[in-house]
Amino acid sequence: MPSTTAQSSRPATVPTAPVLVPSGSADDNLPLFRAVTVRVWASEQRASGRAYIDALVAAGFDRSAMQLTEDHSTVGNPAESIQFSVRWGDRECLVGQVGPSTGDPVAAVLPQLDGGACLVGRTATLGP
After folding, report:
1. DSSP 22
2. DSSP state of 115
3. Does the pLDDT at position 5 exceed 90?
4. Residue 92 contacts by C-beta under 8 Å, 6 or more apart in sequence?
5. Reported pTM
6. HSE-up of 2 (CA within 13 Å, CB side)?
7. What is the pLDDT of residues 87-117, one digit of tens each?
8. Of 74, 100, 85, 88, which Cα lies nearest the Cα of 26?
9. What is the structure's pLDDT at 10?
10. What is the C-alpha to C-alpha distance for residues 45 and 1, in angstroms, rounded to an integer?
């Protein structure tokens, strides 16, 4: 009978990309939200608020739960900072901020404001 040697059948650990966890908490979904934010920030579309929204939708986040600040000032200059958010459940928001005045992209879980909004002030129309 031939001799056999035991070898580890355990596969090598391979890092996986973050995924949407629909039944999870905002904290569970922060890694994907952050990864999308960083990916868009590293692209040529970094100054387009719509690019962040479209990328978040492509990643599985609900467009109807999103808010976005304008990416241009009232006189047409690029905004110094763009904020975007996804309302998560009844109490939390995933909020991102990018722009020249921000430095590195910021992504955080914050409490919802009264009335269920995530961002303060006037926000952009997000249509399809």
Report:
1. T
2. G
3. no
4. 25, 26, 109, 110, 111, 112
5. 0.85
6. 2
7. 999 999 999 999 999 889 999 999 999 988 9
8. 88
9. 58
10. 65
Nearest to 46 by CA among 97, 121, 109, 93: 97
What domain count does the chain have?
1
Question: Is 107 a member of any domain?
Answer: yes
Residue 101 domain-assigned (yes or no): yes
In a domain, 52, yes or no: yes
The answer to whether 38 and 45 have CB atoms below 8 angstroms apart is no
Output the six-digit token pair for 119.
């961002």
Instruction: For residues 88 and 3, give the distance between their C-alpha atoms in angstroms, rounded to a whole number.
Output: 58
Instruction: For residue 115, give Cα distances in angstroms to 69, 91, 112, 119, 125.
Output: 18, 10, 8, 11, 18
